[in-house]
Amino acid sequence: MMLKVQGLHVSYGKIAAVKDVSIEVAEGEIVALIGPNGAGKTTLLKTTAGLLPCSGGSILFDGRPIANRPATEVMRQGLALVLEGRSTLKHMTVHENLVLGGYGLTRAIPCTPISVRLAPSPCSSSEATGMLICRLRLSGRHGCNKL
């Protein structure tokens, strides 16, 4: 199993946002997380990505425990959260995104070439999505050549 969340509990102070949630995602599987506002969808995703602490349960990514690990460590293992709107990418050009994707690399990583229009202006929404894929490929995150 690529991602396995079991019995997850997350609270904001005394308010329980996620109670005993379990989900499994196999490699290559596409899963939709659907529910009303306030159901805990974003909280579940943020907790899985290391942006929020959990108060119970377990999270395994590629067989390794990642619950309550810093987001930077979770990202190095290949799991990243891109929030709706991609507001963190809009102000950056395509070139700046590519440079950011390679930040911290200590070795060359072979990745499947992809076509990118190098634009001096800030990224559009579709370019931002493309940049996420580029950044994951450049970073050598798990499965980058399977995209």
How would you explain this protein's 3D organization?
With 147 residues, this protein is of the alpha+beta class. It has two domains: 3-76, Rossmann fold, CATH 3.40.50.300; 87-146, no CATH class. The protein has helices at residues 41-48, 71-76, 87-90, 94-101, 125-139; strands spanning 3-12, 15-25, 56-61, 64-65. The longest helix is centred in the last third of the chain and has 15 residues, at 125-139. The chain is globular and about 40 Å long.
Q: What structural category do the secondary elements indicate?
A: alpha+beta
Here the CATH topology of the largest domain equals Rossmann fold
Please summarize the sheet with the most strands. Answer: 4 strands, antiparallel
Average pLDDT works out at 76
Helical coverage, percent range = 25-40%
The named CATH superfamily of the largest domain: P-loop containing nucleotide triphosphate hydrolases
Which CATH class of the largest domain applies here?
Alpha Beta
Task: Report the count of strand segments.
Answer: 4
The assigned CATH architecture of the largest domain is 3-Layer(aba) Sandwich
User: CA-to-CA gap between the ends?
Assistant: 18 Å
N-to-C SSE string, H for helix and E for strand: EEHEEHHHH
Radius of gyration: 17 Å
Overall form: globular
Instruction: Order the strands across the largest sheet as they lie in space.
Output: 2-1-3-4
In DSSP terms (H or I, runs of 4 or more residues), the helix count works out at: 5
Q: How many domains make up the coordinates?
A: 2
Residue windows where pLDDT falls under 50 for at least 5 positions: 106-119, 142-147
Instruction: Estimate what percentage of residues fall within beta strands.
Output: 15-25%
